[in-house]
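User: Can you recover a sequence for this backbone? Please restate the input before giving your answer.

Assistant: Of course. Working from this structure:
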């Protein structure tokens, strides 16, 4: 009987031989595996030795793997199947150092770890690296110190796009600067994007190798990713980067962005387009499905081929089998997601694994664990409320419209029909909202949806035609119906303007659907609109889809979204809503320079969210975020409808509603700065818990703020299930600055009605300054105010002013040397002194 030791040994031998290691010389070259130095093993004895390979004189047989010159490359520490390979970690470290080998493999035949002694901890691998692969990796010398100390400013990407931009005459001239930036397509990092990159630097310095960004749709995850990629490549902490997506259109979108942003320093390719020479690239973009197909990632790639792996929409692109691809490669891992974890239901029911909401929750929680965020805190978070508060994102204007039919479907009773079977027995059949376009069909209802959308949808501010729109349908068949109905109505409203291309079905059954999504974003789906000359926008105005244009789809000039389907998943709702939140300047699509100049900025100020199934109400009012899901028991026999023994057996019949239908209820509301409830839920939960703590209530009542703060830190913060902390609560409350625990408690216990924004605090401080200092230069008060604010807000301005490096303000985008010259001379010194003495900068850091 073969023992565990022998089994492990046989497996390890095979794994080594599969990737090119040789126990004996052959036509490929000399042996490059040594078993415990100076221990000679004959070819015939190699497998027989396995049974007792842990019982030799020196304790273990180490495999020493050599390079082509016979020098040590890797120490392989072998353990029996019943032991954790990590138990041999310290012994292997000593042995590797004695042999001057940088790498260690720890294996029991089933689980394997690769350990770069110069780069942190052992990482799990599913395949041993071959001689050439590890030799290449040997030349790789990462440095956490080099990465964490690399300067990252707002022009981090711009310095790759145009290294000498600051010397350009157009940049130095303030009037010419905006068109210069636009023409050159220079992409400056926003402050929060810069903070995200700096969080990675801090995490690497602390030894982390995995990071997670939770950033709302429209906040520039791809630009932020490009900055992270540049950071790792520039500091030689990565030789090559793998960018994983879960959809073809995102593959093209990401590659295009990386080429635009980084092409002067680094090369980006799509793997399927350059399968034979992908090794020449610095950035390889691919769908996870492409690498999974035929086990391609194991057949054509080594675990050491990528030193940084980025997973876009991480909870989707590393779910299920895709996790194998993600974990196959060693090195740093970054996950990106726009879906907040905080709002997913939790269920403790033993049957909960069958509920899709519980599946979604588990998937999100697993994503956080995968990226080393077991506490529930991502490496960096920037929410929709943050984006709206900072002016980068837009909250929806909700149009809640319900027809007679959908009102009944949405009711507790549902849509009830009297039915009679073939034997004359009568009963009732009930249809719920989930049955729409699955078991319950109503053409008049679909018509009412389309008519309401066309009557109330926003128009393009330049051409005046119907604004670009995405409609989310129930199914592919439903999408086809909606597209047909919209095209028929468009022909009546705009005769001859469209040739059945006003609305286009974009679903997986439609050939070249992925290309359609790209063309819609690039404003050439169906060709170009003829409504306005010198203006580029898509002739097709509406894309009708089911789920293709949700996650990560970037089309900022969307003005209308229509939910012609019920939604029950919080993350699906957040994603669909997010398609419209991006800001946009429509003047960018105007060709004629004179016309463009005369228009100025034509900003997207709102988007309309048409909700035909009360989805917003569901997530605002009815969705119980903390409810334990109670699932129905599986019935032993079919349920019956109708009364008593004469009832009809339950049937999954379908029903075609043929009567007229129309909108009977329509309510419109602009979502305010406080956001939707799905964005506020976390903070409200904290308030409830805080107020229910009697000891904390007593301390607040006595205004013993120091003791109250200690109570919050010790009893409420960082506890399982909620993991409250100041940063999460700040974001949940939609505050654009730091808050203190005292402010948090004052708000929770009603001492203040709201948190003051950064602008409001600055206004308060400036008012105090004016009252105290009484500047006499009334005609320069605006310039003084601008300097006062810039010194508080911008740490770079503050540092340059304090150091006396006024000339360096020339290349600062927010406050320049010219701005400083506008400030009366005495105040250039007195304002910084006043702020240092009287203004706390902590809320603005």
């Amino acid at each position: 009987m073969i023992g565990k030791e022998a089994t492990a040994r046989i497996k390890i031998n095979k794994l080594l031989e599969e990737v090119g290691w040789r126990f004996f010389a052959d036509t490929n070259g000399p042996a490059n595996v040594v078993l415990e130095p100076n221990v000679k093993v004959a070819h015939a004895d190699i497998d027989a030795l396995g049974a007792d390979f842990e019982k030799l004189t020196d304790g273990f047989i180490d495999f020493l793997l050599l390079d082509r010159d016979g020098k040590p490359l890797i120490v392989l520490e072998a353990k029996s199947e019943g032991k954790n390979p990590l138990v041999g970690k310290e012994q292997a470290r000593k042995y590797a150092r004695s042999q001057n080998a940088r790498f260690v493999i720890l294996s029991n035949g089933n689980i394997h770890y690769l350990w770069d002694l110069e780069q942190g901890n052992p990482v799990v691998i599913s395949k041993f690296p071959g001689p050439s692969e590890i030799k290449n990796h040997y030349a790789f010398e990462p440095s956490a110190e080099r990465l964490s100390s690399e300067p990252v400013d707002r022009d981090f990407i711009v310095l790759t796009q145009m290294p000498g931009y600051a010397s350009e005459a157009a940049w130095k001239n303030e009037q010419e600067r905006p068109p210069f930036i636009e023409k050159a397509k220079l992409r400056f990092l926003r402050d929060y994007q810069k903070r995200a990159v700096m969080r990675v630097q801090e995490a690497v310095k602390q030894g982390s190798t995995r990071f997670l960004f939770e950033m709302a749709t429209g906040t520039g995850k791809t630009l932020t990713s490009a900055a992270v990629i540049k950071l790792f490549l520039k500091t030689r902490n990565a030789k090559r980067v793998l960018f994983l997506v879960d959809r073809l259109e995102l593959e093209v979108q990401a590659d295009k962005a990386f080429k635009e942003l980084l092409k002067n320093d680094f090369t980006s390719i799509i793997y399927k387009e350059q399968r034979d020479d992908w090794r020449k690239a610095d950035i390889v973009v691919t769908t996870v499905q492409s690498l999974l197909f035929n086990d391609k990632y194991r057949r054509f790639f080594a675990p050491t081929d990528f030193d940084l792996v980025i997973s876009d929409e991480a909870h989707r692109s590393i779910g299920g089998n895709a996790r194998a691809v993600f974990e196959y490669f060693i090195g740093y891992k970054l996950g990106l997601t726009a879906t907040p974890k905080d709002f997913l239901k939790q269920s403790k029911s033993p049957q909960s694994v069958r509920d899709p909401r519980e599946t979604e929750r588990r998937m999100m929680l697993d994503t956080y664990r995968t990226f080393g965020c077991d506490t529930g805190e991502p490496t960096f978070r920037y929410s929709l409320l943050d984006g709206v508060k900072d002016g980068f994102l837009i909250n929806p204007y909700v149009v809640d419209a319900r027809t007679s039919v959908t009102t009944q479907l949405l009711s507790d009773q549902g849509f009830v029909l009297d039915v009679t079977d073939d034997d004359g027995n009568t009963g009732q059949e009930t249809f719920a909202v989930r049955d729409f376009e699955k078991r319950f069909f109503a053409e008049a209802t679909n018509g009412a949806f389309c008519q309401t959308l066309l009557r109330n949808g926003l128009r393009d501010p330049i051409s005046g035609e119907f604004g670009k729109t995405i409609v989310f349908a129930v199914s592919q068949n439903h999408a086809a119906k909606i597209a047909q109905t919209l095209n028929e109505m468009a022909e009546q409203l705009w005769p001859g303007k469209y040739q059945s291309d006003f609305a286009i079905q974009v679903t997986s059954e439609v050939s070249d659907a992925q290309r359609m999504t790209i063309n819609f974003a690039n404003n050439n789906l169906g060709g170009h609109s003829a409504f306005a000359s010198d203006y580029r926008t898509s002739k097709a105005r509406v894309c009708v889809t089911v789920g293709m244009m949700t996650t990560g789809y970037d089309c900022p000039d969307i003005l209308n979204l229509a939910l012609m389907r019920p939604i029950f998943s919080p993350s699906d709702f957040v994603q669909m809503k997010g398609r419209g939140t991006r800001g946009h300047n429509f003047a960018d699509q105007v060709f004629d320079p004179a016309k463009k100049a005369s228009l100025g900025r034509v900003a997207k100020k709102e988007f309309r969210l048409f909700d035909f199934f009360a989805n917003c109400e569901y997530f605002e009012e009815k969705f119980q975020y903390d409810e334990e899901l109670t699932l129905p028991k599986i019935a032993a026999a079919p349920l019956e409808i109708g009364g008593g023994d004469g009832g009809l057996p339950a049937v999954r019949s379908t029903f075609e509603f043929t009567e007229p239908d129309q909108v009977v209820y329509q309510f419109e509301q602009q979502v305010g700065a406080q956001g939707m409830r799905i964005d506020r839920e976390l903070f409200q939960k904290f308030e409830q818990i805080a107020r229910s703590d009697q000891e904390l209530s007593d301390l607040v009542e006595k205004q013993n703020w120091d003791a109250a703060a200690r109570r919050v830190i010790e009893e409420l913060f960082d506890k399982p299930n909620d993991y409250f902390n100041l940063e999460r609560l700040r974001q949940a409350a939609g505050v654009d600055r730091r808050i203190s625990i005292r402010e948090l408690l004052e708000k929770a216990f009603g001492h203040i009605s709201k948190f003051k924004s950064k602008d409001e605090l600055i206004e308060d401080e400036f008012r105090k300054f004016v009252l105290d200092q009484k500047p006499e230069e009334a005609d320069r008060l605006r310039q003084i105010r601008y300097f006062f604010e810039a010194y508080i807000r911008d740490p770079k301005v503050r540092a340059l002013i304090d150091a006396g490096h006024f000339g360096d303000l020339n290349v600062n985008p927010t406050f320049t040397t010219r701005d400083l010259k506008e400030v009366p001379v005495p105040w250039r010194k007195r304002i910084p002194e006043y702020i240092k003495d009287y203004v706390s900068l902590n809320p603005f850091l």
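That completes the design. Confidence is low (pLDDT under 50) at residues 38-60, 342-357, 623-652.
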